[in-house]
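User: Sorry, folds how?
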Amino acid sequence: MLAGKVMVVTGAGGGIGRDIALAMARAGARVVVNDIGASVAGEGSDAGPAQRVVDEIRAAGGEAVANTDSVSEARAAAHIVTSALDTFGRIDGVVNNAGILRDRFFHKMGDDEWDAVIKVHLYGAYYVSRAAATHFKAQESGVFVHMTSTSGLIGNFGQANYAAAKLGVAALSKSIALDMLKFNVRSNCIAPFAWSRMIGSIPTETEAEQQRVARMKQMTPAKIAPLAVCLASDQAADTNGQIFAVRNNEIFLISQPRPVRSVHRSEGWTPEMVASHALPALKAQYFPLDRSSDVFTWDPV
């Protein structure tokens, strides 16, 4: 499905990114395997993880090159794209998968914890996408696959930084899809449910948290790869600006915000009328303070 294409996969040294890189190589793509080799919190660096995935791809007869630049800095992110051009002569797609976690309840969160997560997830997706966009525009083709999360789309405890970044990624993806449609460039999101090193860092201090993580352990990263490969292929040419989720063997199309109810008053509104009429009229359609686990309540199959 990806024969002749060159794909960049960030954060591909392990977990979801690794399985996507391997699957894309099996589908015929030449792959830039990007991974800085940092800890879950984004600390340190190690060239080993990216190179090991490259070795796996080559051992299976595929073509790949390792890259250890950070997505969180514009110049380094641009070098990820140029490594595809320098090695393979072109770039056809980007999978923005790199990520870190620094979970903390909002009232305890430090600026450094906020900045670090936003820089990798949101700035990282922007920097790599922006570097690739120039080439996609020139060749009038290209595809982006971004990793979002139900932590941002729905909600979760202790992840204000991660949730804000991931909802921002969904909006970024939609904006790219709108702005670059005329250049035949597509942009879609996947919210993955899968056990990974990053998910393994989630606190499990309560029974509910332990049960949640136990369910996540049943969902392997390899389950995400088929959708990513398909979205990157020409067979998904009519799929653009969408948000999907993958939960084990289930694939979901996720809703996007739209008006659900309105009230009108020809004389206009005063604060008192809003309180006495508008809010009571709209209250029936209020959304509950759900977490992701409140919406996805059934065991993965």
Notes: The domain at 6-256 is CATH 3.40.50.720 (Rossmann fold).
